[in-house]
Design goal:
alpha+beta; globular; 6 helices; 13% helix
Length: 251
C-alpha cells in the first residue's frame, strides 16, 4: 500500500480530529489486531488474549486488478464502519458530489463489479482514498437495504505510478462478522445490526455498531469515555471494565 495511497485507514489507533470544522480520518481499527484486553498483566505475567483477539481475520492481499476482481460474486461485510462514502453506480461511473451515505459496520455487500474512474482532485473521497491517477471502485448491491437490486459503488484503492494499491483487507471482512464474533451473542448483534449502542457493550461492540470514527478520552482501553462520530450523530459512552455504563447522545 504505497505510492500515495492515503485515507482514514492505518495500523495502530483510531482517532478523529476536528480541524477547522473538517474531520481528518486517521485510522481504521482492525478489531482483533488491537488486543482489546482490559486486564493489565503484572511484570511477570503473560498477556491474556480476549475472545476478540482470538478471532482470525482473513486477508487476501490483492496487488492487481485481476486479484481484486476475484471478489465479484462474493459477499463481504464492512469492517471500517463510518469511514467511506458510497454512491449510486450509473454504469461504471459515480458522481462524487452526491454520496448516498456512509457504509456502516457489519453491513453485507454483494460485489458485482470492479471498475476504475478518475476522481476529483479534492473533496471527501480523496481525503479517504488518495486520488492517484485513478480510483479503483467496487460495485455492489446491499441486500439489507430498501432496494436490494440498486447498484452502488465505493472507492477501495487507486492506480498510481505504475501500480495498484488496495485497502480492501482493511476496509472489509471476508467472512461474516456475525460468525467471527458469535461469542458476542444474538442480543448484542441485534443492537449492532440496528447501529445502536446499549449499556453493557464493550468498546469493540460499540465501535461495530456506531463506526470507527472516534475520539477517545483517555488511553486506558475499556476504562475511559469514547465519543463516536456516528455519521454526524455523536454519542459519548463511558466504559468501566470494558462495559458501557453511561451513554450520552450529542456533542
Amino acid at each position: 500500500m504505497t505510492n500515495g495511497l492515503k485515507a482514514a485507514l492505518g495500523f495502530t489507533a483510531v482517532l478523529v480530529i476536528a480541524v477547522g470544522g473538517e474531520l481528518l480520518y486517521l485510522h481504521h481499527r482492525n478489531y482483533a489486531d488491537q488486543h482489546m484486553v482490559v486486564q493489565r498483566p503484572g511484570q511477570n505475567e503473560e498477556p491474556t488474549l480476549s475472545a476478540d483477539d482470538a478471532v482470525f481475520l482473513r486477508k487476501e492481499r490483492p496487488d492487481s486488478l485481476a486479484n481484486e476482481r476475484k471478489l465479484i460474486g462474493t459477499t463481504i461485510w464492512v469492517s471500517a464502519g463510518g469511514q467511506l462514502d458510497y454512491y449510486k453506480d450509473t454504469g461504471k461511473h459515480v458522481d462524487y458530489n452526491h454520496p448516498v451515505g456512509v457504509l456502516a459496520g457489519a453491513e453485507p455487500l454483494v460485489i458485482k463489479d470492479v471498475f476504475e474512474q478518475v476522481p476529483p482532485k479534492t473533496g471527501r473521497a480523496v481525503a479517504r482514498i488518495a486520488a492517484g491517477q485513478r480510483h479503483v471502485l467496487l460495485a455492489f448491491t446491499m441486500p439489507k437495504s430498501d432496494d436490494p437490486k440498486q447498484l452502488y459503488a465505493t472507492p477501495v484503492g487507486n492506480y498510481d505510478e505504475g501500480s495498484y494499491n488496495f485497502l480492501t483487507d482493511e476496509i472489509f471482512f471476508y467472512d461474516d462478522p456475525h460468525v467471527l464474533y458469535k461469542h458476542w451473542g444474538p442480543a448484542v448483534w441485534a443492537h449492532i445490526d440496528k447501529h445502536e449502542a446499549v449499556l453493557g457493550m464493550s468498546e469493540n461492540q460499540a465501535m461495530m455498531a456506531l463506526g470507527q470514527v472516534i475520539t477517545p478520552h483517555g488511553d486506558n482501553v475499556g476504562d475511559r469515555s469514547v465519543t463516536y462520530y456516528n455519521d454526524n450523530h455523536p454519542v459519548t459512552i463511558d466504559f468501566e471494565h470494558d462495559k458501557a455504563v453511561k451513554i450520552t447522545p450529542g456533542d
